[in-house]
Amino acid sequence: MNSDEIFIDRCIEIAQKGKLYVAPNPMVGCLFVQDGVIVSEGYHQKFGGSHAEVNAYNSLPSEVDPQSCEVYVSLEPCSYHGKTPPCADLLIKLKPKRVVVGCLDPNPKVSGAGVKTLIDAGIEVIVGVLREKCELLNKYFFKAQKHNLPYVTLKWAQTNNKFMARESDSLESSKISDLRNDSFVHQLRASHQAILVGANTINIDDPLLDVRYSEGNNPIKVILSPDLSVDFEKQTFNFGKTLVFNKTDNKESANYQLIQTNPYALEIILSNLFERGIYSVLVEGGIQVIQAFLDAELWDEAIIIESNKSWNNGRKAPKLNGIPSLVHQAYDDNISFFNKS
Ligand code: AOF
Ligand code: ZN
Questions:
Q1: Which listed ligand is nearest to 102 at the C-alpha?
Q2: Can you tell me the distance from the alpha carbon of 170 to that of 165, in angstroms, rounded to the nearest whole number?
Q3: Per-residue model confidence as pLDDT tens digits over 160-176
Q4: What is the β-pairing status of strands 333-339 and 301-307?
Q5: CA 29 to each of CA 68, 183, 303: distance values in angstroms, whole numbers, following the listed order
Q6: Which residues have a catalytic role annotated?
Q7: pLDDT band at residue 341 using 50, 70 and 90 as cut-offs
Protein backbone atom coordinates (compact mmCIF):
# COMPACT_ATOMS: atom_id res chain seq x y z
CA MET A 1 0.00 0.00 0.00
CA ASN A 2 1.22 3.52 -0.73
CA SER A 3 0.83 6.22 1.91
CA ASP A 4 -2.50 7.52 0.56
CA GLU A 5 -3.88 3.98 0.76
CA ILE A 6 -2.56 3.51 4.29
CA PHE A 7 -4.33 6.68 5.45
CA ILE A 8 -7.62 5.85 3.69
CA ASP A 9 -7.40 2.36 5.18
CA ARG A 10 -7.17 3.97 8.62
CA CYS A 11 -10.26 6.08 7.74
CA ILE A 12 -12.12 2.84 6.97
CA GLU A 13 -10.96 1.33 10.24
CA ILE A 14 -12.16 4.20 12.43
CA ALA A 15 -15.38 4.61 10.41
CA GLN A 16 -16.44 1.15 11.59
CA LYS A 17 -16.65 2.36 15.17
CA GLY A 18 -19.95 3.95 14.08
CA LYS A 19 -21.29 0.69 12.65
CA LEU A 20 -24.12 0.10 15.11
CA TYR A 21 -25.30 3.69 15.42
CA VAL A 22 -25.13 5.65 12.13
CA ALA A 23 -27.72 3.89 9.95
CA PRO A 24 -29.23 4.81 7.58
CA ASN A 25 -26.28 7.17 7.20
CA PRO A 26 -22.96 5.73 5.97
CA MET A 27 -19.96 4.98 8.16
CA VAL A 28 -17.29 7.59 7.45
CA GLY A 29 -13.78 8.18 8.82
CA CYS A 30 -11.54 11.23 8.36
CA LEU A 31 -7.94 12.16 9.19
CA PHE A 32 -5.89 15.35 9.19
CA VAL A 33 -2.31 14.51 8.24
CA GLN A 34 0.64 16.90 8.60
CA ASP A 35 3.98 16.02 6.99
CA GLY A 36 2.97 12.36 6.80
CA VAL A 37 1.85 12.18 10.43
CA ILE A 38 -1.77 11.80 11.59
CA VAL A 39 -2.61 14.83 13.73
CA SER A 40 -6.32 14.17 14.25
CA GLU A 41 -8.99 11.57 13.59
CA GLY A 42 -12.76 11.68 13.50
CA TYR A 43 -15.64 9.46 12.46
CA HIS A 44 -19.40 9.75 12.07
CA GLN A 45 -20.54 8.45 15.45
CA LYS A 46 -24.31 8.42 15.36
CA PHE A 47 -27.24 9.17 13.08
CA GLY A 48 -28.01 12.89 13.09
CA GLY A 49 -24.64 13.67 14.70
CA SER A 50 -21.76 15.64 13.22
CA HIS A 51 -19.94 14.21 10.25
CA ALA A 52 -16.48 12.64 10.24
CA GLU A 53 -14.77 15.77 8.84
CA VAL A 54 -16.24 17.98 11.57
CA ASN A 55 -15.21 15.54 14.30
CA ALA A 56 -11.67 15.27 12.90
CA TYR A 57 -11.39 19.06 12.67
CA ASN A 58 -12.70 19.48 16.22
CA SER A 59 -9.96 17.23 17.58
CA LEU A 60 -7.18 19.01 15.69
CA PRO A 61 -4.72 20.42 18.27
CA SER A 62 -5.00 24.23 18.34
CA GLU A 63 -1.35 24.72 17.39
CA VAL A 64 -1.79 22.84 14.08
CA ASP A 65 -2.67 25.05 11.11
CA PRO A 66 -5.24 23.20 8.92
CA GLN A 67 -3.61 24.84 5.87
CA SER A 68 -0.50 22.75 6.54
CA CYS A 69 -2.53 19.49 6.51
CA GLU A 70 -3.85 17.01 4.02
CA VAL A 71 -7.36 15.72 4.73
CA TYR A 72 -8.23 12.05 4.12
CA VAL A 73 -11.85 10.95 4.09
CA SER A 74 -13.35 7.57 3.15
CA LEU A 75 -16.47 9.12 1.53
CA GLU A 76 -16.83 12.25 -0.55
CA PRO A 77 -17.50 15.30 1.67
CA CYS A 78 -21.17 16.27 1.57
CA SER A 79 -22.28 19.38 -0.25
CA TYR A 80 -25.78 20.10 1.04
CA HIS A 81 -27.56 21.02 4.25
CA GLY A 82 -29.09 17.86 5.74
CA LYS A 83 -29.21 17.50 9.50
CA THR A 84 -25.76 19.10 9.49
CA PRO A 85 -24.08 21.78 7.31
CA PRO A 86 -22.04 20.78 4.22
CA CYS A 87 -18.58 19.39 5.02
CA ALA A 88 -17.29 20.65 1.67
CA ASP A 89 -17.91 24.24 2.88
CA LEU A 90 -15.97 23.55 6.07
CA LEU A 91 -13.00 22.21 4.09
CA ILE A 92 -13.06 25.21 1.73
CA LYS A 93 -12.83 27.48 4.78
CA LEU A 94 -9.93 25.46 6.21
CA LYS A 95 -7.98 25.39 2.90
CA PRO A 96 -6.05 22.14 3.42
CA LYS A 97 -3.16 21.40 1.05
CA ARG A 98 -5.02 18.47 -0.47
CA VAL A 99 -8.14 16.38 0.08
CA VAL A 100 -7.96 12.62 -0.58
CA VAL A 101 -11.34 10.90 -0.99
CA GLY A 102 -11.94 7.13 -0.89
CA CYS A 103 -15.10 7.03 -2.99
CA LEU A 104 -17.85 9.29 -4.28
CA ASP A 105 -21.09 9.58 -2.29
CA PRO A 106 -23.90 7.74 -4.17
CA ASN A 107 -26.50 10.02 -2.51
CA PRO A 108 -28.00 11.89 -5.52
CA LYS A 109 -27.86 15.08 -3.43
CA VAL A 110 -24.05 14.79 -3.35
CA SER A 111 -22.81 12.38 -6.04
CA GLY A 112 -19.76 14.32 -7.25
CA ALA A 113 -21.02 17.76 -6.18
CA GLY A 114 -18.89 17.69 -3.02
CA VAL A 115 -15.70 17.05 -4.98
CA LYS A 116 -16.65 19.62 -7.61
CA THR A 117 -17.21 22.33 -4.97
CA LEU A 118 -13.75 21.67 -3.56
CA ILE A 119 -12.06 21.72 -6.97
CA ASP A 120 -13.94 24.89 -7.96
CA ALA A 121 -12.60 26.48 -4.79
CA GLY A 122 -9.06 25.68 -5.91
CA ILE A 123 -8.40 22.74 -3.58
CA GLU A 124 -6.44 19.79 -4.96
CA VAL A 125 -8.61 16.66 -4.70
CA ILE A 126 -7.77 13.01 -5.34
CA VAL A 127 -10.68 10.56 -5.64
CA GLY A 128 -10.82 6.78 -5.63
CA VAL A 129 -8.11 5.62 -3.22
CA LEU A 130 -9.19 2.10 -2.07
CA ARG A 131 -12.49 2.87 -3.81
CA GLU A 132 -13.87 -0.69 -3.75
CA LYS A 133 -13.06 -1.18 -0.09
CA CYS A 134 -14.68 2.17 0.77
CA GLU A 135 -17.81 1.22 -1.16
CA LEU A 136 -17.94 -2.21 0.45
CA LEU A 137 -17.76 -0.60 3.89
CA ASN A 138 -21.11 1.01 3.12
CA LYS A 139 -22.72 -1.75 1.05
CA TYR A 140 -26.17 -1.11 2.60
CA PHE A 141 -25.98 2.64 1.90
CA PHE A 142 -24.76 2.12 -1.69
CA LYS A 143 -27.49 -0.41 -2.49
CA ALA A 144 -30.21 1.83 -1.07
CA GLN A 145 -29.01 5.05 -2.72
CA LYS A 146 -28.54 3.42 -6.12
CA HIS A 147 -31.65 1.23 -6.27
CA ASN A 148 -34.12 2.85 -3.86
CA LEU A 149 -34.42 -0.53 -2.14
CA PRO A 150 -32.85 -1.78 1.08
CA TYR A 151 -29.94 -4.25 1.12
CA VAL A 152 -31.40 -7.68 1.83
CA THR A 153 -29.49 -10.32 3.79
CA LEU A 154 -31.02 -13.79 3.97
CA LYS A 155 -29.94 -15.86 6.94
CA TRP A 156 -30.87 -19.38 7.85
CA ALA A 157 -29.58 -22.40 9.74
CA GLN A 158 -29.65 -25.92 8.35
CA THR A 159 -28.58 -29.36 9.54
CA ASN A 160 -25.77 -31.08 7.73
CA ASN A 161 -28.41 -33.04 5.81
CA LYS A 162 -30.14 -29.75 4.82
CA PHE A 163 -33.19 -29.65 7.09
CA MET A 164 -34.22 -26.20 8.27
CA ALA A 165 -37.36 -26.84 10.33
CA ARG A 166 -39.20 -29.66 12.11
CA GLU A 167 -42.49 -31.01 10.78
CA SER A 168 -45.30 -28.99 12.37
CA ASP A 169 -46.40 -31.81 14.73
CA SER A 170 -42.86 -32.57 15.95
CA LEU A 171 -42.03 -32.15 19.63
CA GLU A 172 -38.27 -32.40 19.12
CA SER A 173 -36.02 -29.37 19.60
CA SER A 174 -35.87 -27.19 16.52
CA LYS A 175 -32.61 -25.43 17.47
CA ILE A 176 -30.02 -26.10 14.79
CA SER A 177 -27.07 -23.76 15.14
CA ASP A 178 -24.54 -23.92 17.97
CA LEU A 179 -25.70 -21.84 20.96
CA ARG A 180 -22.28 -20.23 21.01
CA ASN A 181 -23.10 -18.65 17.63
CA ASP A 182 -26.16 -16.79 18.98
CA SER A 183 -23.98 -13.73 19.57
CA PHE A 184 -23.01 -13.78 15.86
CA VAL A 185 -26.68 -13.89 14.88
CA HIS A 186 -27.46 -11.02 17.25
CA GLN A 187 -24.58 -9.00 15.78
CA LEU A 188 -26.25 -9.50 12.41
CA ARG A 189 -29.55 -8.28 13.86
CA ALA A 190 -27.88 -5.23 15.38
CA SER A 191 -26.14 -4.32 12.14
CA HIS A 192 -29.39 -4.32 10.13
CA GLN A 193 -32.11 -1.72 10.54
CA ALA A 194 -34.94 -4.22 10.17
CA ILE A 195 -35.53 -7.92 10.72
CA LEU A 196 -38.17 -9.63 8.59
CA VAL A 197 -40.07 -12.91 9.12
CA GLY A 198 -43.32 -14.49 8.00
CA ALA A 199 -46.44 -14.91 10.18
CA ASN A 200 -45.80 -18.66 10.54
CA THR A 201 -42.45 -18.02 12.20
CA ILE A 202 -44.17 -15.76 14.76
CA ASN A 203 -47.07 -18.14 15.35
CA ILE A 204 -44.96 -21.30 15.65
CA ASP A 205 -41.65 -20.16 17.19
CA ASP A 206 -42.82 -17.07 19.13
CA PRO A 207 -39.40 -15.39 18.68
CA LEU A 208 -38.45 -12.08 20.31
CA LEU A 209 -36.46 -10.86 17.27
CA ASP A 210 -34.40 -8.55 19.48
CA VAL A 211 -30.70 -8.01 20.18
CA ARG A 212 -29.79 -9.54 23.53
CA TYR A 213 -26.57 -11.50 23.03
CA SER A 214 -24.56 -8.59 21.59
CA GLU A 215 -24.31 -4.81 21.63
CA GLY A 216 -26.57 -2.58 19.55
CA ASN A 217 -30.11 -1.45 18.96
CA ASN A 218 -33.06 -3.73 18.33
CA PRO A 219 -33.99 -3.70 14.64
CA ILE A 220 -37.46 -2.67 13.52
CA LYS A 221 -39.54 -5.84 13.15
CA VAL A 222 -41.25 -6.53 9.84
CA ILE A 223 -43.80 -9.34 9.61
CA LEU A 224 -45.31 -10.58 6.38
CA SER A 225 -48.88 -11.67 6.99
CA PRO A 226 -50.97 -11.25 3.82
CA ASP A 227 -54.20 -12.49 5.41
CA LEU A 228 -53.42 -11.14 8.91
CA SER A 229 -53.16 -14.64 10.34
CA VAL A 230 -50.34 -13.54 12.65
CA ASP A 231 -51.14 -13.94 16.35
CA PHE A 232 -50.88 -10.47 17.92
CA GLU A 233 -50.61 -12.02 21.40
CA LYS A 234 -47.10 -13.31 20.67
CA GLN A 235 -44.24 -11.86 22.70
CA THR A 236 -42.57 -9.87 19.90
CA PHE A 237 -45.55 -7.46 20.01
CA ASN A 238 -44.74 -6.52 23.62
CA PHE A 239 -41.89 -4.16 22.79
CA GLY A 240 -40.40 -1.97 20.08
CA LYS A 241 -41.73 -1.21 16.67
CA THR A 242 -43.41 -3.85 14.46
CA LEU A 243 -44.70 -3.35 10.93
CA VAL A 244 -47.17 -5.95 9.62
CA PHE A 245 -47.52 -5.98 5.83
CA ASN A 246 -50.87 -7.35 4.71
CA LYS A 247 -53.46 -7.20 1.94
CA THR A 248 -56.39 -5.64 3.76
CA ASP A 249 -55.78 -3.13 6.55
CA ASN A 250 -53.96 0.06 7.46
CA LYS A 251 -53.98 0.70 11.20
CA GLU A 252 -51.66 2.03 13.84
CA SER A 253 -51.84 0.75 17.41
CA ALA A 254 -49.51 1.05 20.38
CA ASN A 255 -47.78 -2.26 19.62
CA TYR A 256 -47.78 -2.51 15.85
CA GLN A 257 -48.59 -0.84 12.56
CA LEU A 258 -50.61 -2.60 9.86
CA ILE A 259 -49.60 -1.64 6.34
CA GLN A 260 -51.76 -2.62 3.41
CA THR A 261 -49.86 -3.21 0.18
CA ASN A 262 -51.45 -3.38 -3.18
CA PRO A 263 -50.38 -5.39 -5.09
CA TYR A 264 -48.97 -7.57 -2.34
CA ALA A 265 -45.46 -8.14 -3.67
CA LEU A 266 -42.01 -8.29 -2.07
CA GLU A 267 -40.62 -5.50 -4.23
CA ILE A 268 -43.44 -3.15 -3.16
CA ILE A 269 -42.84 -4.07 0.49
CA LEU A 270 -39.08 -3.43 0.16
CA SER A 271 -39.73 -0.15 -1.59
CA ASN A 272 -42.08 0.85 1.26
CA LEU A 273 -39.30 0.04 3.77
CA PHE A 274 -36.83 2.15 1.78
CA GLU A 275 -39.26 5.09 1.85
CA ARG A 276 -39.29 4.76 5.64
CA GLY A 277 -35.50 5.18 5.69
CA ILE A 278 -34.79 1.47 6.20
CA TYR A 279 -31.66 0.66 4.18
CA SER A 280 -30.93 -2.89 5.41
CA VAL A 281 -33.16 -5.88 6.14
CA LEU A 282 -32.20 -9.21 7.68
CA VAL A 283 -34.60 -11.95 6.54
CA GLU A 284 -34.66 -14.65 9.21
CA GLY A 285 -37.36 -16.96 7.94
CA GLY A 286 -39.10 -19.18 7.54
CA ILE A 287 -38.60 -21.42 4.56
CA GLN A 288 -41.39 -19.95 2.41
CA VAL A 289 -40.37 -16.37 3.00
CA ILE A 290 -36.69 -17.03 2.26
CA GLN A 291 -37.65 -19.02 -0.84
CA ALA A 292 -39.83 -16.11 -2.02
CA PHE A 293 -36.87 -13.69 -1.76
CA LEU A 294 -34.67 -16.16 -3.65
CA ASP A 295 -37.29 -16.73 -6.37
CA ALA A 296 -37.85 -12.99 -6.85
CA GLU A 297 -34.08 -12.42 -6.86
CA LEU A 298 -34.62 -9.67 -4.30
CA TRP A 299 -31.63 -10.43 -2.12
CA ASP A 300 -28.03 -9.25 -1.91
CA GLU A 301 -26.34 -11.64 0.48
CA ALA A 302 -27.16 -15.00 2.04
CA ILE A 303 -25.60 -16.38 5.20
CA ILE A 304 -26.08 -20.08 5.87
CA ILE A 305 -25.20 -21.55 9.24
CA GLU A 306 -24.78 -25.29 8.77
CA SER A 307 -24.48 -27.36 11.93
CA ASN A 308 -22.88 -30.76 12.32
CA LYS A 309 -26.23 -32.15 13.53
CA SER A 310 -28.20 -34.52 11.38
CA TRP A 311 -31.99 -34.97 11.64
CA ASN A 312 -33.98 -37.98 10.45
CA ASN A 313 -36.73 -35.83 8.98
CA GLY A 314 -38.08 -32.30 8.81
CA ARG A 315 -38.63 -29.59 6.22
CA LYS A 316 -35.86 -28.97 3.73
CA ALA A 317 -33.93 -25.71 3.61
CA PRO A 318 -33.99 -23.58 0.44
CA LYS A 319 -31.33 -24.50 -2.09
CA LEU A 320 -28.77 -21.95 -3.07
CA ASN A 321 -26.59 -22.58 -6.08
CA GLY A 322 -23.27 -20.84 -6.34
CA ILE A 323 -19.97 -20.66 -4.59
CA PRO A 324 -19.69 -18.95 -1.22
CA SER A 325 -17.39 -15.93 -1.07
CA LEU A 326 -16.31 -17.04 2.41
CA VAL A 327 -16.75 -20.08 4.65
CA HIS A 328 -15.59 -20.24 8.19
CA GLN A 329 -15.94 -22.73 10.95
CA ALA A 330 -17.48 -21.33 14.14
CA TYR A 331 -17.69 -23.86 16.98
CA ASP A 332 -19.83 -26.79 15.70
CA ASP A 333 -21.13 -24.84 12.68
CA ASN A 334 -19.83 -23.84 9.27
CA ILE A 335 -20.94 -20.35 8.28
CA SER A 336 -21.05 -19.64 4.52
CA PHE A 337 -21.50 -16.22 2.93
CA PHE A 338 -22.94 -15.86 -0.59
CA ASN A 339 -23.26 -12.70 -2.67
CA LYS A 340 -25.99 -12.63 -5.29
CA SER A 341 -23.92 -11.29 -8.18
C1 AOF B 1 -19.86 13.21 4.97
N2 AOF B 1 -19.33 12.82 6.15
O3 AOF B 1 -19.44 11.69 8.06
C4 AOF B 1 -21.23 11.50 6.57
C5 AOF B 1 -21.74 11.87 5.30
O6 AOF B 1 -28.46 14.55 7.40
P7 AOF B 1 -26.97 14.69 7.45
O8 AOF B 1 -26.50 16.13 7.49
O9 AOF B 1 -26.31 13.87 8.54
O10 AOF B 1 -26.40 14.14 6.05
C11 AOF B 1 -26.48 12.77 5.72
C12 AOF B 1 -25.86 12.55 4.37
O13 AOF B 1 -24.51 13.00 4.37
C14 AOF B 1 -25.80 11.06 4.00
O15 AOF B 1 -26.94 10.66 3.30
C16 AOF B 1 -24.55 11.02 3.13
O17 AOF B 1 -24.85 11.44 1.82
C18 AOF B 1 -23.68 12.06 3.79
N19 AOF B 1 -22.90 11.41 4.88
N20 AOF B 1 -21.02 12.70 4.55
O21 AOF B 1 -19.25 14.01 4.27
C22 AOF B 1 -19.96 12.00 6.97
N23 AOF B 1 -21.92 10.69 7.39
ZN1 ZN C 1 -20.73 15.92 5.65
A1: 1
A2: 10
A3: 999 999 998 888 888 99
A4: antiparallel
A5: 20, 26, 27
A6: 53
A7: confident
Do 192 and 128 share a domain, yes or no?
no
- C-alpha–C-alpha distance, residues 293 and 266, integer Å: 7
With a threshold of 0.85, does the pTM exceed it?
Answer: yes
| Span from the CA of 118 to the centroid of ligand 2 (angstroms) | 13
Domain count along the chain: 2
Query: If you measure from the C-alpha of residue 38 to the centroid of ligand 1, how many angstroms do you get, rounded to a whole number?
Result: 23
For residues 157 and 135, state if they share a domain. Answer: no
pLDDT at 327 over 90: yes
Look up the domain containing 128 and give its range: 3-141
118 and 171 together in one domain: no
Same domain, 108 and 256: no
Rounded mean pLDDT of 261-268?
Answer: 96
Report phi then psi at 151, rounded to 5: -75, 130
**Which residues sit opposite 31 in a β-bridge?**
41, 72
State whether the Cα torsion 340-183-198-170 is positive or negative: positive
Cβ atoms of 52 and 42 closer than 8 Å: yes
